[in-house]
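Request: Show me your protein:
***
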Amino acid sequence: MKSITSISKIKSEFSLQNATSFGSVKIFLAYLEKIKLAQAMSSLSGGKAHNSIFPIHRILLYLVVD
């Protein structure tokens, strides 16, 4: 996943009362960026239809993040 802004440059503050559990997702995304999971998955080859919009590695990455 190519980002315009690096995840590590996004500032976080954990002061919101009754926040959702998605507040810590930045830490997880920073970890995925650090281990270069997107680049590793892009080297995978998989069958895909000629008219598909998203490559297989991007779909797998979205499933991991979700």
